[in-house]
Amino acid sequence: MSSATTPYHHGDLKNALIEAAVTLIEEEGVDAVSVRAVAKRVGVSPGAPFRHFESRTALLTAVAEVAMARLAQAIDQALAQAGGQSALTQYMALGRAFLDWAFANPTHFRVISSRALIDFDGSGLAAANHRIRDRMRALLQQALDDGEIRNVTVDDAMLATRALAYGLARMYVDGQMQSWDVEPAQGLQMAHRLLDEQVMRLA
Amino acid sequence: MSSATTPYHHGDLKNALIEAAVTLIEEEGVDAVSVRAVAKRVGVSPGAPFRHFESRTALLTAVAEVAMARLAQAIDQALAQAGGQSALTQYMALGRAFLDWAFANPTHFRVISSRALIDFDGSGLAAANHRIRDRMRALLQQALDDGEIRNVTVDDAMLATRALAYGLARMYVDGQMQSWDVEPAQGLQMAHRLLDEQVMRLA
DNA sequence: ACCTGAACACCGTTCAAGT
DNA sequence: ACCTGAACACCGTTCAAGT
C-alpha cells in the first residue's frame, strides 16, 4: 500500500477503470475506448478489467451511468433556476439544458443514446431516463391545465419536443449541421431557437 | 474465364465488394462489415479489397452512395406521386418518404447519417444531400408564396422539419422508442403524425 | 494489372499460473 | 480475492511474391 511502489492489488480498480474510460472518451471518442487501452492507462494487464466488467459493453455502460448522472444533474440545476416560472417556461428550460449538455459533451451524449454500445435496460439508465420523462410529462400536464398549451395531448407534445431536441443534438454530434447550411458554431443557438419556437407553437 | 473454375483475376471485384457489403450490412449491421468478412464473402484474399478501396471507410462510403441513391429515388417517387398537389402537401410527402425509407432501412440510414464511418464530403453524398435540401427549400418557398405557411423563414422551417424527421428516425433506429412509451411497431405511424402536425402548425 | 499470403500492430476475451 | 501474461480468434492495412 505504499505510494511509491505499484502494488499487485490495485485496490479500487473498478472505479479507476471507469474514471479512465470517462476521460479517454472525452479526449479521443468512443472508438478509442478499448478495454486494453483503458487497462494500459490505469497500468494494469489487458485481462484485469474482466475481473470487474464482464465485457467492453459493461464497462461502457458504467461510463454511460456516469454521463447520465451528469445530464440529470444539469437538468435539475436548470429546473431549480427556473423554479417559480410558468410550467411551459420550465419545460423549455429543461429542453435547453438537454441541448446544452449534449452540445458540450458530444461523446457522452452519443454513448447514452446508443443501444449497441451499452446495456440500457439492464442498468440504472432506463430508470434515470424515466425520471426525466416523468418531469417532462408533469410540466406539460401543468401547462395544459394552466391553459398555456392547447390542441395537443401531453404524450404527443412530449414526443415531438423530445424528437426535435434529439434530432438537433444528433445533427450536431453527427457533424450534419454544415450539410444543412448551419455553421457548427451557431448550432446551439439555432437549436435553442427552433426548440423554443416549436414549444411556443403549442400555445 | 470459365464459369466452373475461379480465375485468379476476379473481373469486377470492386462492384462485387460493394454488393457484398450492401447485403452484409442489411443482414448483420454495420459492425459485421469488416473488410476481411466482405473479402471472404466474395471469395478473395484479405488484402485484395485494398486494391480497389484505400480503406474500410472508402468501402463504406461506396455503400453509402448506393444507399443514398435509393433514398433519393424513394423521394423522387413520392414527389412524382404527389405532383399537382399543393406545395405543402408535397413537402409532407417528401418528409414521409424520408421516414419510410429510414424505418425500412435502419442500417443504411445509419451509414449515410454518420460522418465517422464514411467520407461524406469527399464523395457524391454531399451533392446528393444538396439536391434533397434544394427540393425542400423550393417547396417551402412555394408554400410561403402561396400563403400556405406564415410567420417562419424558409430556412427555419426547413431545419425544424428536417431535425424532427431525423430525430424521429434516429430514435427508432437507436432503439429509443420504447424508452419514450412508443411501441416500436407503432413508431412509423407516430412519426408520420408528428411530422404532419409540425408542418401544419406552420400555417 | 490484379490477387495471394504472410506479416504487423491492434482488438475482446479466456484462463492457468502467480501473489 | 485479485492480477499477470500467454493464448485464441479476430481486426485493418501493407507488401513482396506470384499469375
TrEMBL record, chains A, B:
Domain of life per record: Bacteria
Q: Does the keyword DNA-binding apply?
A: yes
InterPro entries listed in its UniProt record:
Homeodomain-like_sf, HTH-type_TetR-like_transc_reg, HTH_TetR, MT1864/Rv1816-like_C, Tet_transcr_reg_TetR-rel_C_sf
Gene3D superfamilies assigned to the protein according to its UniProt record, in alphabetical order: Tetracycline Repressor, domain 2
Annotated HTH tetR-type domain ranges read 11-71
Which key words tag this protein in UniProt?
A: DNA-binding, Transcription, Transcription regulation
Asked if the keyword Flavoprotein belongs to this entry, the reply reads no
* A Pfam family it matches: TetR_C_33
Q: Name one GO molecular function term.
A: DNA-binding transcription factor activity
Q: Which residues does UniProt assign to DNA binding? A: 34-53
- State the name under which the record lists this protein: Transcriptional regulator, TetR family
Organism, as annotated? Andreprevotia lacus DSM 23236
